[in-house]
Design a protein that fits this description.
Length: about 325
């Protein structure tokens, strides 16, 4: 039987819909090795020595930007963070010119977050360095989706047929929701979604998910619950009555959590609005894997940089 070599060498990471299941597996296997490096006293290897990584963030970020920075440094790369609020963007420089300017400095990869959907795809068309999408509007956040898969695997859940996955909250404005729906449905999981109807896209069922009006229906018997942050900064007014009403009707609390399986894993991409989409006790409960997600984000981003910039290792799969 012929063998197909899987590699991400030189590939732009723009979303998870365009990656194959075999490519998911390559990243997850590599991340497991990278996490071993993170556990060492000296967290540094020379894999990307002599390579330069630019973090270009047009939006505020703590977890994603810091983890990409640490990932590059742990691999020995030179990492530069560009905060657009103190860059030439404030003087009117367009995205194309910013990307081409960075490219001219001979960088090897650009990690990019932008508020407009499709910005990373455009950058990949313009630039020669590897482009890694760190979030573009409400479109995609591939490294978050991969770290969620990695975290679930560590918690004994390999996403696939027979697993019920619930996504709660602000789906309309969530790139995390779209990314996880793309990955989880591709892997064959049973995906259920619930939240205020104004925050549920009208065409969501076409993506292969089941939409519920009541949170209780979505999480009943669930193996995984992914709680989304209410993105007040993106929303129009009137998407839901009040914060108190949202917490009462749609928030994940300890009583609702009892409807899921006893070994349910609770995810949240952060930052959390505690007391709004997730109660304080659930955020710290035994089933919550939220801190694990943060740590695994560094391992996944190390894997992505290693595999795309250096070619990294490959795995062989039967056709």
């Amino acid at each position: 039987m012929a063998k197909a070599v899987v590699s991400l060498a030189g590939k732009d990471i723009l979303d998870l819909a365009s990656l194959s299941v075999e490519e998911y597996e390559l990243v997850l296997q590599t991340a497991a090795e990278m996490k071993k490096i993170m556990k060492r006293d000296i967290k540094k290897v020379p894999s990307l020595r002599g390579k330069s990584i630019i973090n270009l963030f047009y939006e505020a970020s703590t977890r994603t930007r810091t983890s990409f920075e640490l990932a590059g440094k742990y691999l020995g790369a030179d990492v530069v963070n560009i905060n657009t609020s103190s860059s030439s963007v404030t003087k009117g420089e367009c995205l194309r010119d910013t990307i081409l300017t960075i490219q001219s400095m001979a960088c090897d990869a650009i990690v990019m977050r932008h508020p407009i959907e499709g910005a990373a795809v455009y950058a990949a068309q313009v630039a020669k360095p590897v482009i890694i999408n760190a979030g573009d509007g409400a479109h995609a956040h591939p490294s978050q989706g991969l770290l969620d898969l990695f975290t679930l695997r560590e918690h004994g859940k390999k996403v696939g047929k027979g697993l019920k996955m619930a996504i709660l909250g602000d789906v309309l404005y969530s790139r995390v929701a779209r990314t996880n729906i793309a990955a989880w449905t591709k892997l064959g999981a049973d995906v259920h979604v619930a939240g205020p109807m104004p925050l549920i896209p009208h065409d969501l069922k076409e993506l292969g998910v089941t939409v519920h009006k009541r949170v209780e229906e979505a999480i009943e018997g669930a193996d995984v619950i992914d709680v989304l942050r209410i993105q007040l900064e993106r929303q129009e007014k009137g998407m839901f009555p009040t914060a108190r009403e949202y917490a009462r009707i749609f928030g994940l609390n300890s009583n609702r959590l009892k409807l899921a399986k006893p070994d349910v894993t609770v995810l949240h991409p952060g930052p959390m609005n505690r007391g709004l989409e997730i109660s304080w006790d659930v955020g710290y409960c035994e089933q919550a894997a939220i801190r694990d997600e943060v740590q695994n984000g560094v391992a996944i981003r190390m894997a992505l940089l290693f595999l795309t910039v250096m070619g990294g290792k490959t795995i062989e799969n039967a056709d």
